[in-house]
Design goal:
One of its GO terms (cellular component) is tRNA methyltransferase complex. Keywords: Methyltransferase, S-adenosyl-L-methionine, Transferase, tRNA processing. Pathway: tRNA modification; N(7)-methylguanine-tRNA biosynthesis. InterPro entries: SAM-dependent_MTases_sf, tRNA_(Gua-N-7)_MeTrfase_Trmb, tRNA_methyltr_TrmB_bact. 31% of the residues lie in helices and 18% in strands. It has one domain: 3-Layer(aba) Sandwich (Rossmann fold), CATH 3.40.50.150. The protein is α/β, with parallel strands linked by helices. It contains seven helices and seven strands; from the N terminus they run H-E-H-E-H-E-H-E-H-E-H-E-H-E. The chain has a seven-stranded mixed sheet with strand order 3-2-1-4-5-7-6, sandwiched between helices. Helix 3 links the parallel strand 2 and strand 3. Bound molecules: S-adenosylmethionine (SAM). S-adenosylmethionine binds next to strand 2, helix 4 and helix 7.
Length: 213
């Protein structure tokens, strides 16, 4: 393990430190088979969710994006120790890195599933522009996802999940499944925050969108 580096609780994605997009790796070197369907987890934190998903679903590739670099460093070490060839993490600001990361995927981007789970809430009105789900991010997903692709949103804060839904509702490429919150996650793994919330008996607000046309 690398020396323990302080992991900040929150970082401001609009700070100049995160203004440059991530370098795009060679996807055919990162994944054993870069043509497998891709599941993207935006704001993956420590990466436990995608790590478990990658172990359970070897016919998919999993990519976690995270803005706190020490978490990505550790997640990559654990990935290498477990010899997981269908799992990768990129330290980046998803808001400026998503488009370049997906744009030149060899043979076209195989993005089939996206999850955005328990994003930082940024409660103060003046901080809400720091929230990760912005119209431009939804536009990139609409460009890169094929018809039938799925976007999964969840949060323990109803207003935060409702706002994510507003951004997807505004984009005509996405259609919501049902009008009310869904009770179950479709995935065989939980995120850290999901587990803690459920252990406390608190509600989780969940919504699913399908890339329509
Ligand atoms: C509250 S945590 C939730 C982590 C994990 N998804 C879970 O459910 O346990 C939100 C994560 O999103 C990351 N994040 C926030 N803004 C981001 C951005 N613009 N790009 C990439 N990651 C971001 C944060 O650093 C943090 O790790």
């Amino acid at each position: 393990m690398p020396p323990i580096r302080r992991v900040r609780q929150h970082v401001n994605p609009l700070s100049s430190k995160y203004a440059n997009p991530a370098e795009v790796p060679d996807w055919s070197e990162v994944f054993a088979n870069s043509r497998l369907p891709l599941h993207l987890d935006i704001g993956c934190g420590k990466g436990d969710f995608v790590r478990e998903m990658a172990a359970r679903l070897p016919a998919w590739n999993f990519l976690g994006l995270e803005i706190r670099e020490p978490l990505v460093d550790r997640a990559l070490i654990r990935r290498d120790q477990a010899l997981q060839k269908n799992l990768h993490f990129v330290f980046c600001n998803a808001n400026n890195s998503l488009r370049p990361l997906l744009a030149d995927w060899p043979g076209g981007c195989p993005l089939q599933c996206v999850s955005i789970q328990f994003p930082d809430p940024w409660f103060k009105k003046r901080h809400q522009k720091r929230r990760v789900v912005q119209p431009e991010l939804v536009d990139v997903l609409a460009e890169q996802m094929p018809s039938g692709g799925m976007v999964w949103l969840q949060s323990d804060i109803e207003e935060v999940c409702a706002e994510m839904c507003d951004r997807f509702d505004e984009n005509s490429a996405f259609v919501r499944e049902g009008a009310s919150w869904l009770s179950e996650s479709p995935f065989p793994a939980q995120t850290d925050r999901e587990r803690v919330t459920q252990e406390k008996g608190l509600p989780v607000y969940r919504a699913k969108y399908i890339r329509d046309r």
